[in-house]
Amino acid sequence: MVLRLRTDAGITGWATVSFGMIAGGPRVVQTILEQEVKPVILGMDPAFPRRIRAELWKALEYNGVAGWCSLPSRRGHRVWDILGKSAGLPVYKMLGAFRDRMPVYSMCGWYYDNDGDLARYKRSIAQACEQGYHAVKIKVGRGPMEEDVRRIKLAFDVVGKTGG
Q1: Which fold has domain 2-94?
Q2: Can you state the angle between helices 145-161 and 119-130, rounded to 10 degrees?
Q3: Cβ of 86: how many Cβ atoms within 10 Å?
Q4: DSSP state at residue 110
Q5: pLDDT per residue over 53-76, tens digit each?
């Protein structure tokens, strides 16, 4: 799901949220964002991300707030995206940069339906390496330990063969 926060000055902040295997997740989150979060943050100044978080905390305290309060301000990065665009700076520089590059990984090692031979899993890791990633994040823990070991070994094999 792609989240968009648009200011009255015409600046838009963007962030993404993933729901893994939850089929109705995007619809539920859209409803919460539109009916609970939007009324709280509408009209607030994005230059005050901590105030936004505090207001969300007050409004959503009894609704399992930790994740929801952080979406527009901290984890979602939409407010920081807006602030960076407004200042003409990348966010990492606004926050006191230490380096100009950061290692990243691809979250590609999902559990895929009907993938008993792990062909789709293997292909997703290989594609990430072909795209230039040197590390991948995989899912484990759903089944027996032997399945986890199989998934981990396959990921190491694929990443090692592609030069990652």
Answers
A1: Enolase-like; domain 1 (3.30.390)
A2: 30
A3: 15
A4: -
A5: 888 888 887 655 455 544 544 444
Reported as a single tens digit per residue, the pLDDT across 34-44 is 898 889 989 98
Query: 67 vs 19, 56, 64, CA distance in Å?
Result: 13, 10, 7
What are the structural domain ranges in the chain? 2-94, 106-161
State how far the Cα of 27 lies from the Cα of 128, in Å rounded to an integer: 28
Residue whose entry in the numeric block shows the structure tokens 């009255």: 8
Nearest to 13 by CA among 44, 58, 36: 44
As a whole number of Å, the end-to-end CA separation of the chain is: 29
Q: Is the distance from CB of 4 to CB of 14 less than 8 angstroms? A: yes
E strands of 32-162, at which residues?
106-109, 136-138
For the chain, how big is the Rg over CA atoms in Å?
Answer: 20
Interaxial angle between packed helices 49-60 and 78-87, expressed in degrees from 0 to 180 and rounded to the nearest 10: 160
